[in-house]
Amino acid sequence: MSKELDLKKALRLYFVMGSQDIGLYDPLTTLEIALKAGVSCYQWREKGPLSLKEAERIAFAQAARRLCANYHVPFFVDDDVELALKLSADGVHVGQKDEGAQTVRRRIGTDMWLGVSVHSLEEAEHAHADGADYIGVGPYKPTQSKADAESPVGDKLFRELTKRDYPLPTVAIGGVTPNDVSTILSAGAAGVAVISAISKSPDPAKSVDRFLSELNMY
Q1: Does residue 117 have an active-site annotation?
Q2: What are the structural domains of the chain?
């Protein structure tokens, strides 16, 4: 199986979570529940005023990396390239306000996946030119998980990218629920990225099951 096919499979149900995103359970318990239930990849995103610092932050990242390895699920690090390299992460994800994708690609080489958050056609084209392997497109709908989120893009940008034969896999993020999956995939996305709909659910495993049920219809 090619690296491209492996990535598309990994992006199907992309779980994003930091300690600041949890509900009833602690972060590692929440992560393990989600991994057992069948998320296809995980992004460690530890940001914001309530996030862990220094030694606690590193310990959480290391433990999350080990859990993902145990379940054979790709592990991505948000923004922190140095930490991603230290942990031998499977990928790095950066936003428009983080380190430039072109620079990140040079630092991580070709063996590690690179994802970039985009909110427009222009940003999508730049991400491709800069060496991204996939893009996260959003926010799909209004979201509480990012205080500085852009205006919602809905499915319009996905359809435009598909119409233009955009070469990279795309993932929808931002307020995505199981009810949105059919619209998102029919617009051309490879998968959905989810934060609070899983991490803050009173039953994370059931939430994962609901997403998978919708995803498996395509």
Answers
A1: yes
A2: 3-215 (3.20.20.70)
